[in-house]
């Protein structure tokens, strides 16, 4: 294993050196666009929403669209009108050098170089509850991510990427303020359009909902709870982040099973698998971590989450949101810290006790007025045409 790691590292270094020697020699094509979502994990999120809007627009009929996706042949992904290349391959570096437009939702590696006549749109991937980048309050000696970065190394990795941005999407007024401090980006490069990925949430039809339920073999005669917890910064092994499931789904079934079923969707960064339990068949539906979560939003009647930013998007649907934070004391004291006062500004109540959570769901105890106030502050820009707004700014006015 040690020899294999050494060979992979050597190959990576050779690729980086070769790339930096030749990337300036590759001319930029004004009608080539490259899309990357979550470091090549798939065809998803804001880049997907922007792409799907562009291919419907006759102004882009002669554009070439490139998607960089890891292990795309094994994933058997098909993208209408798009060319798929392998992430971190020779074609990947070629098109990063050639494409006029980069549409990306994640922090890019420092080794990628951008030319002055290329346009980098950073779409990002959520409104943050947990502090980001420069805003993180970290005791001396704190390390970040599995790589063990120091605080300074962590913020420098953001700074390198932000310097390359031409535009960064802000989903709301709150993010317009937060991104200026967390990313240290100037206001002029922030475009407050709302998130394109939420156009689907706003516009989903009853036919869409029916088709998604059929796709996942979800019953149509029960209400649906989506349980979508996030990853923990401090819980990981060499190969990725892990998650200790603190949900007694047998208890959930006993209390809610007559009326509800549960969809369990772990965060895409979580690598450990959760064993199936035959006694929960027909009640618990475990969905792959890389599944398109927007589809799960629109078919669900209730969201249960913890510190994940998923609730910002889900709130667009005006459906109940419950917060199951069983490790709250540790999380708020030991990890990143929050932007919001979680006791007064969230669109739902916090539960540390699982039984109380389930009883309130069963009894439909939920404060809709709290949700309405939340949406006025955080979802004012989600008008169902966010992708169009972004395209007009980045491609038409550019």
Strand ordering within the main sheet: 3-2-1-4-5-8-9
Beta-strand proportion: 15-25%
CATH H-level homologous superfamily name of the largest domain: CDP-glycerol glycerophosphotransferase, N-terminal domain
Decide which structural class fits the backbone: alpha/beta
CATH architecture of the largest domain: 3-Layer(aba) Sandwich
Which regions have little confidence, pLDDT < 50, spanning 5+ residues?
232-243, 268-274
Keywords:
single chain, 398 residues, alpha/beta, Rossmann fold, 2 domains, seven-stranded parallel sheet, six-stranded parallel sheet, 15 helices, 17 strands, globular
Verbal overview:
The structure is a single chain. The protein folds into 2 domains: 7-198 and 384-396, CDP-glycerol glycerophosphotransferase, N-terminal domain (Rossmann fold, 3-Layer(aba) Sandwich); 199-378, 3-Layer(aba) Sandwich (Rossmann fold). The protein is 36% helix and 17% strand. The protein is built from 15 helices and 17 strands. α12 links the parallel β16 (321-324) and β17 (350-351). The longest helix is centred in the first third of the chain and has 21 residues, at 2-22.
């Amino acid at each position: 294993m040690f020899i294999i790691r050494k060979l992979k590292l050597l190959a990576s270094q050779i690729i980086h050196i070769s790339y930096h020697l030749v990337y300036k020699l590759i001319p930029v094509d004004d009608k080539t666009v490259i899309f990357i979502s979550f470091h090549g994990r798939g065809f998803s999120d804001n880049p997907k929403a922007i792409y799907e809007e562009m291919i419907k627009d006759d102004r882009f009929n002669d554009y070439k669209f490139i998607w960089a996706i890891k292990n795309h042949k094994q994933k058997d992904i098909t993208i209408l009108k798009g060319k798929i290349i392998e992430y971190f391959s020779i074609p990947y570096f070629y098109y990063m050098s050639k494409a006029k437009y980069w549409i990306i939702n994640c922090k890019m590696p420092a080794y990628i170089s951008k030319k002055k006549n290329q346009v980098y749109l950073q779409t990002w991937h959520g409104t943050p509850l947990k502090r980001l980048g420069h805003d993180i309050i970290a005791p001396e000696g704190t390390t970040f991510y599995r790589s063990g970065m120091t605080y300074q190394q962590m913020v420098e990795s953001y700074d390198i990427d932000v310097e390359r941005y031409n535009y960064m999407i802000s989903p709301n007024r709150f993010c317009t303020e937060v991104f200026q401090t967390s990313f240290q980006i100037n206001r002029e490069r922030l475009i407050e359009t709302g998130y394109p990925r939420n156009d689907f949430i706003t516009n989903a039809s009853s036919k869409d909902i029916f088709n998604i339920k059929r796709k996942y073999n979800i019953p149509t005669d029960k209400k649906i709870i989506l349980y979508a917890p996030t990853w923990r910064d401090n819980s990981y092994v060499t190969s990725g982040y892990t998650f200790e499931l603190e949900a007694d789904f047998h208890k959930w079934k006993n209390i809610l099973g007559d009326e509800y079923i549960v969809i369990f969707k772990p965060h895409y960064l979580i690598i450990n698998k959760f064993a199936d339990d035959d006694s929960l068949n027909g009640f618990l539906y475990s969905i792959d971590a890389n599944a398109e979560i927007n589809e799960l939003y629109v078919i669900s009647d209730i969201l249960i989450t913890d510190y994940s930013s998923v609730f910002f998007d889900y709130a667009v649907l005006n459906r109940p949101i419950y917060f199951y934070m069983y490790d709250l004391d540790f999380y708020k004291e030991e990890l990143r810290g929050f932007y919001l006062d979680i006791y007064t500004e969230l669109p739902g109540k916090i539960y540390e006790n699982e039984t109380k959570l389930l009883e309130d769901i069963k009894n439909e105890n939920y404060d809709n007025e709290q949700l309405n106030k939340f949406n006025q502050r955080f979802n004012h820009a989600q008008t169902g045409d966010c992708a169009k707004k972004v395209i007009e700014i980045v491609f038409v006015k550019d």
